[in-house]
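Hello,

I think I submitted the S-adenosyl-L-homocysteine job twice by accident. Can you confirm which output corresponds to this input? Input:
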Amino acid sequence: MSGSLVVVGTGPGKAELMTPATLAALSRATDLVGYGPYLDRIPARGDQCRHASDNRVELDRARLALSLAAAGRQVAVVSGGDPGVFAMAAAVFEAVETGDPAWRSLDIRVEPGVTAMLAAAAEVGAPLGSDFCAISLSDNLKAWTTVERRLKAAAEADFVIALYNPASKARPHQLGQAFELLRKLKAAETPVLFVRAAGTAEAEVVTTTLGAADPSRADMRTLVIVGASTTRQVGRWIYTPRSERGAPS
Ligand code: SAH
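Support: Only one job matched these inputs. Its output is below.
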């Protein structure tokens, strides 16, 4: 049997948010490749090989997965959330582009998953109800000036902004810098949401404003949503109305 590679996402955390198509792809796999904590979300099976690695070596992990598939294995590469959002799917295609030309004819598929932004939005209401964008604050793979340029453009275009990777031990100051930049361009009362462990039993939500937002509330399991000018509170929910007629231009 010839090999194959499927890139899947486990969703934000709880088992019900892993799609049936992802579960089916995982059950067909002979080899699972991924970051250890994501592999831990998948029940162990004695006949499957697990290749756990740490979080920083995405391209090496992608190359390992492609070599296994080229050797005839049925490989599942496992990300958290959706595999195409700041995750392994792009690393697999980058490895194909720069690697063995034979990898281009492998059977490679991507299964969509529930990304953190969607789970976080659902915890608080419907903050992504109108146009939104997603920005990763990590500057491991791009310059911080690029992040700043995109934040500025997103604020000027009045998008709701979902911030992935808002903080890590190696980068404690970046979210504070991002808020400072946004405060120059957006109203102080703009809703800001810190959603930690969205889509899990431990989900925690902090609702605040851009003026009052404390960057130290974010950690690696937090998604931050910064509202647009129309984003508002009704009861205990936050939403962005579909209709922007009458919104400031
Ligand atoms: N592929 C993943 C994102 C990887 S980037 C996805 O589609 O969700 C990792 C970042 O995602 C984290 O730093 C955090 O900002 C966010 N994240 C992942 N899972 C989360 C969750 N359950 N709750 C809140 N944020 C989460």
